[in-house]
Predict the structure of Outer-membrane lipoprotein LolB.
Amino acid sequence: MRRVFGLLAMLLVLGGCGMAPIPFAPNPKVAVERGMRRERLLVGDWRQALPAGRWRQSALFEWHGRKLPMVGLLQLDQRRQSLKLLALDDLGTKLFLLQLGPAGEELQVYQPALQGFAGFEDLLVSALRRLYPGGTIAANTRMELGEDAWLLRAPEGAVTAWFRFSGPQPLLTSWGGEGWQVDCYQLRRHRGQIWPEGMVLNDRKRGYRLLLRNEEFTADER
């Protein structure tokens, strides 16, 4: 067990030589249909069609030269805006348990190396709320046609949030706000559900990046 703690501490403190390359193939550029209606475009927000369920994921969290690889077991219900994430290292040792909901969040950290890192909880909460924001795209968004994508821009307080739809049957491939964005890769249909095999959250203002591979999704039984 000491070897696991020592390895985790080295990953956190020493990090690596720069950021890891994005391991996902770029999305193909395809001209989008002109004259698209907002209602039809919003059908491509695959997040709204996902039922509550369980995800198995692998991830790499990077910030200020530090790297933390992990395996995630995520319980997600976007309509209720609630999630529970249990993160493990590659040996199956628990790293942390994070629960988010409309009323707030709760984090349990199991590793001393993480407990001593100032601001870790705030970074995690920020990352998960941006990856899984819940709710729907605001009705007062304005549509803009780009070369290979439709953009929806919506007011988010004093900051403008944006959503990018691309592909022959436009799907939501990225979204973001001031200084941060989420990019989705390899959006495919899996057993009737559309979801991305890869997601990258890059927060340039706060200096962290999360690379996430969705390995498997299992919908909850109704």
